[in-house]
Amino acid sequence: MRYYKVPGETIRRLPTYLGALWFLLEKGDVTVSSTGLAEFIGVNPWQIRKDFSYFGGFGKRGVGYDIETLTKEIKKILKLDVIHKAALVGVGNLGLAVLAYPGFKNYGFEIAACFDNDPKKIGTRINGTIIEDVSKIRTLGKRGINIAVLAVPRSVAQQAADDLIDVGVKGILKFSPGYITVPKKVKVITIDIAMAFARLPYYMPG
Amino acid sequence: MRYYKVPGETIRRLPTYLGALWFLLEKGDVTVSSTGLAEFIGVNPWQIRKDFSYFGGFGKRGVGYDIETLTKEIKKILKLDVIHKAALVGVGNLGLAVLAYPGFKNYGFEIAACFDNDPKKIGTRINGTIIEDVSKIRTLGKRGINIAVLAVPRSVAQQAADDLIDVGVKGILKFSPGYITVPKKVKVITIDIAMAFARLPYYMPG
DNA sequence: CATAGTTTGTGTATGTGAACGCAAGTATTA
DNA sequence: TAATACTTGCGTTCACATACACAAACTATG
């Protein structure tokens, strides 16, 4: 492991590789070449090899990559080799979709707490977790949760984020549009669906 | 307008600017400087000026940018100055969230058709549109719809995309994980929630 | 054991985007 | 009108990411 200076783009691609590897593993494959993996994902083979080389290289020349080993190594790099407990704030349509999303478990995430401010929802059980009042966010610190999914309207996103950070949350996946201010040591990744959508017409012919 | 060679990253940022401008307009502001807009969004002022300069520059030196004019210009660049009818394929949790998402209208999108393969859902009305059987996708061509949101499981994503492209869809916003093959003239933007999530632990301290 | 055929790992060239600085234009004030 | 303060537009420099080529390492085969 060199970890010398890993490009952000490489980190962005690692989860993609992971997803593809699971698929191949399920299919019964044992090893895969950079070429095979590349055309499965839709990128160039040398891109894949270069990405892995930042961490020392996981393959065997003349053979390829052992899928199981490679999976483990990538998980280790991304710190996904331990279970991460996450909290969901905002159990609206989007929040429900997140709860039902099958992909999270694969990556080692477990939604261990849900919060909402709608009295009608509070107390109901969904997917095995009881929806709590947002005021209970401050109990999170003791529950070993340091990741949160923010699926609330823009107007309350900053407040919710502040509360989460207060109790030790270090990473936030935010679905609300707009910019929020957070301390440097907190990582926020924003998915703005409408904004992704808005780029489509530009690239469409006609 | 020079349109000489616009970086993809610039196009990626334009919707963000649009979102911020709406907010400022609602607040009652009339003009905004690159510095003001920058700190509102969380980027550098020269980034914003550079981005606009690719299109010829919309501001007035010593004053700033007229918010209303700027909004119109950005919409024109992104081809958002006309209403785009879109189809939703897959009315699961995520599909419902998309339907309920308030942001789309702002950008000029209208979900004009919904499809699912669940007999229990077909025929029911949601947000003003009736859910149709996926076999009805082939009627889309006559309805002037050339954009689609794909919120189906990975296993049927390729098939659904093929069907959509057959009837003239040119742009797809895909939520399913995995890679799909499409003709060059079709633009696919993928949002893989789990994958975005998977990057978080890497950037978190501890 | 030698040879042919694969496939990785990585140094380098090329391309693309971000950061910066500054001239040029605009408003304001005296 | 002149001077000052402000803000844009854009050329240039620097940093990062991709594309590529090729030596090194491994397998298979006769």
Provide keyphrases for this structure.
homodimer; 206 residues; alpha/beta; seven-stranded mixed sheet; two-stranded antiparallel ribbon; 9 strands; DNA-binding
Q: What layout of secondary structure does this protein have?
A:
2 copies of one chain form a homodimer.
Chain A: H1 8-27, E1 31-32, H2 34-41, H3 45-53, E2 65-66, H4 67-77, E3 84-89, H5 93-100, H6 103-106, E4 109-116, E5 125-126, E6 129-133, E7 147-150, H7 154-166, E8 171-174, E9 187-190, H8 193-198, H9 200-203
Helix pairs in contact in A: 1-4, 2-3
The structure holds a DNA duplex (30 and 30 nucleotides).
If you had to describe this structure to a student in words, what would you say it looks like?
2 copies of one chain form a homodimer. Chain A is of the alpha/beta class and 206 residues long. Helix content of chain A is 40%, strand content 18%. Chain A is built from 9 helices and 9 strands. In chain A, the strands form 2 sheets. Chain A has a 7-stranded mixed beta sheet with strand order 5-6-4-3-7-8-9, with helices on both faces. In chain A, strands 1-2 form a two-stranded antiparallel ribbon. In chain A, a hairpin with a 2-residue loop joins strand 5 and strand 6 (129-133). Chain A is globular. Chains A and B meet through helix 1, helix 5, helix 6, strand 8 and helix 8 of A and helix 1, helix 5, helix 6, strand 8 and helix 8 of B. Chain A binds a DNA duplex (30 and 30 nucleotides) through helix 1 and helix 3.
Strand and helix order of chain A: HEHHEHEHHEEEEHEEHH
The total count of strands of chain A amounts to 9
Order of neighbouring strands in the sheet with most strands of chain A: 5-6-4-3-7-8-9
State the low-pLDDT regions of chain A, or none.
none
Strand percent estimate of chain A:
15-25%
Strand-pairing-aware structural class of chain A: alpha/beta
Straight-line N-to-C gap of chain A: 49 Å
Mean pLDDT of chain A: 94
- Give the overall silhouette of chain A: globular
